[in-house]
Structure formats: structure tokens, C-alpha cells
Design goal:
350 residues, alpha+beta, eight-stranded mixed β-sheet, 15 strands, 29% helix
Length: 350
């Protein structure tokens, strides 16, 4: 993966799939899109996460990843780095631009931490990321300088790019803290095979790059709507007592896959909530707030406090947990109702 990023300012790259479709897919684009959504929405187990990481690092080691970028798979990525050369360069010349650039070594990705968020944690971090404080990003706030984050329950695309709600849910995020900022990609789960990316056939693995996001160290990141906000929220929540961390057991067959891909199984960490029932309430409350609803009995959303720590003379985000309020046994007020009047019933003898 390239160490440089396409843009020098905070910017979401629009429509990361870039009109990519499965080459020679039967049944038309609509049917393929429906199958893609269904495939991407599948839950991810810890074993799946190891397999997907092995597959993705293998793709980084091939020329197909560079070929995907050279084909403008992520719009504005190449033009942002090489604004003068990119428009007139051929596919081969664009690939050469990437390979001559500084690359993060494959071994670094293989040894990178693998974070697995369980299903309840996925709901919690989706809700919490929407209101994360607008602050400059710091190198030390992330769970690791470089890593993979897998969602047990894929996160809806609207949590990353509300302008494109029809995109499949995100299965994973990769990130890297580089010299000038933090660079992150969201990935969707796809059937591996040949895809047409802007007229160029690219062999794609089981994860497909959906969106890229970059935030310089000296710029504040907006809350919600991008993968770095998700990463920041998860990293902050993981440092608080409401979460727990462990290393799930991995079957020997999956450990063999990890060894063959030169992945360290001991770098695998699972993050879960101590009270998972709170996550559904938080997500429901976030949706209600977005829709302007406040039921009679409702969950008061958790929120971030910009807590001052005298020991380090800095403010850091601290999550204040939500709580129930009101009468949850009371039925919500009825909306408009249609009352139908019936005439007197006449009983007739048989």
C-alpha cells in the first residue's frame, strides 16, 4: 500500500467503487449489485478475519493492487499525487509511478495488529463515531500505528459516506500512520475474481477497496461519515472500563493459513463491550435523533467529554455512557388512525 496519499487536505474520495463491476457477470448489473450487497452483509468470525487478512496481504504483494489504483479505482487518488503526469499517463506509466513511490513494506502489513470488533462493539462504535470531538488527530491515539480492523457485524456505508447510501456495508478498515498524517481505507467483502474497473480488468481478492480517507496531523477530523472517525472512536472506547480485550482461540487450520501468509496469530485482538446490551440502545437512540424522534421511554445517548488529564497536561475524549429515561412500558403515541363505523349487526336464525 502506498505511503503517500492523493490529497494534502482532509477529503473523502467520492464513490470509491468507481463504477467497478464483475467482468462478464450474468444477470445484469442490478442482479450482481444485489448479490454483492448480500455477500458484503455477511457476519465475520475471528477465523474469517484471519483468512481475509491473509488474502488481502497476498493481494498487496501482487501487481493487481497497483493495477487497481492505476485504473482510477479510487477517484482522485492518483491525480492528487501526480496532478501533471496522471491525466496523460498510460496504465503502465501510472503503475510505474506507484511502484517508484515509497511503499509500506509487505512485512509491515503482515506483522500489523489485527483488531476484531464483536457485533455489539460494532453498533456502539457506529453510534459513538457520529459525535466524536472535532480535534486534530494524534499518532498515539490509535490502537496501533498500522493495522487491520474487522467488523463482526458489517457497518452500514452511511456511517462512512452518507452521500452514497446504496453502497454495500463495510467489512474492514486498514490504516497506517505515515509521515504527514493518517491514511485509511474501508473494504467491502466481495466474491473474488475478475472485475472491470473503468475498462481495465483487475483480479480482486475477497475484499474490495471502497473508500479512502486521509487526515494530516495538523488538521482536525470531522465527526462521523468517515473511517478515521470510526477508528478514533474505537481506540478511545477500548481504553475505557466499559470494554474488554482478549485473544480468541484460533483453530489449527486457520493458524496454518496465518503461518503460510506470514501473519502473526498473536497480533490478533478482540474488543468487546462488558455490557453488550447497551450497544443496541445507543444505535437506536442515534437513529431516533437523526430522524427527530424522542419516544416516551427512550435511551439517553452516550456522549463524549473533552476530559482534561493533569498528568499529561492534555484533553482527551472520554465516553460518558448512556442511560434509560422515561416509561418503557408505555406504548408510543398513536399516529393518525382510520376509524371505520359498522352498521348494526342483525342476527338471523338458522
Amino acid at each position: 500500500m502506498t505511503q503517500r496519499h492523493a490529497v494534502t487536505r482532509t477529503k473523502r474520495l467520492k464513490n470509491g467503487r468507481a463504477r467497478a463491476t464483475r467482468a462478464n457477470s450474468p444477470g445484469g448489473a442490478a442482479e450482481f449489485r444485489a448479490r454483492l450487497h448480500s455477500h458484503a452483509a455477511r457476519s465475520v468470525t475471528p477465523a474469517d478475519a484471519i483468512r481475509l487478512k491473509a488474502s488481502l496481504t497476498g493481494w498487496f504483494d501482487s501487481d493487481q493492487w497497483i493495477r487497481y489504483l492505476a485504473a482510477d479505482g479510487l477517484p482522485e487518488y492518483g491525480p492528487g499525487v501526480w496532478p501533471e503526469k496522471w491525466p496523460t499517463a498510460s496504465l503502465e506509466e501510472r503503475m510505474e509511478l506507484f511502484t517508484s513511490d515509497d511503499l509500506i513494506p509487505l512485512e509491515t502489513w503482515q506483522n500489523a495488529d489485527t483488531i476484531y470488533a464483536d457485533a455489539a462493539m460494532c453498533d456502539m462504535v457506529t453510534a459513538a463515531a457520529q459525535t466524536f470531538p472535532k480535534q486534530c488527530v494524534r499518532r498515539d491515539e490509535f490502537l496501533a500505528p498500522i493495522g487491520f480492523l474487522f467488523f463482526a457485524k458489517p457497518v452500514p456505508s452511511t456511517a462512512f459516506a452518507p452521500l452514497f447510501p446504496d453502497q454495500p456495508p463495510a467489512t474492514a478498515i486498514t490504516w497506517a500512520c505515515v509521515d504527514d498524517g493518517v491514511n485509511a481505507f474501508t473494504w467491502i467483502r466481495t466474491p473474488s475474481g475478475a472485475y472491470d474497473v473503468n475498462g481495465v480488468t483487475v483480479q480482486v481478492t475477497a475484499l474490495f477497496p471502497q473508500l479512502a480517507y486521509f487526515v494530516p496531523w495538523d488538521k482536525p477530523a470531522h465527526a462521523g461519515t468517515h473511517c478515521i472517525s470510526i477508528l478514533r472512536a474505537l481506540s478511545a472506547l477500548a481504553k475505557q472500563p466499559l470494554t474488554r480485550e482478549d485473544s480468541p482461540k484460533i483453530h489449527q487450520s486457520v493458524r496454518a493459513i496465518a503461518r503460510n501468509a506470514k501473519i502473526r496469530p498473536e497480533s490478533f485482538r478482540r474488543i468487546a463491550l462488558r455490557r453488550p446490551e447497551a450497544a443496541a440502545h445507543e444505535l437506536s437512540a442515534a437513529r431516533a435523533a437523526a430522524e427527530g424522534r424522542t419516544p416516551a421511554g427512550h435511551w439517553v445517548r452516550g456522549h463524549w467529554r473533552n476530559q482534561y488529564y493533569a498528568s499529561i497536561d492534555e484533553h482527551r475524549p472520554l465516553w460518558i455512557e448512556g442511560f434509560p429515561r422515561g416509561d418503557f412500558t408505555q406504548r408510543p403515541p398513536a399516529g393518525e388512525r382510520l376509524l371505520v363505523a359498522h352498521g348494526d349487526r342483525v342476527e338471523t336464525g338458522q
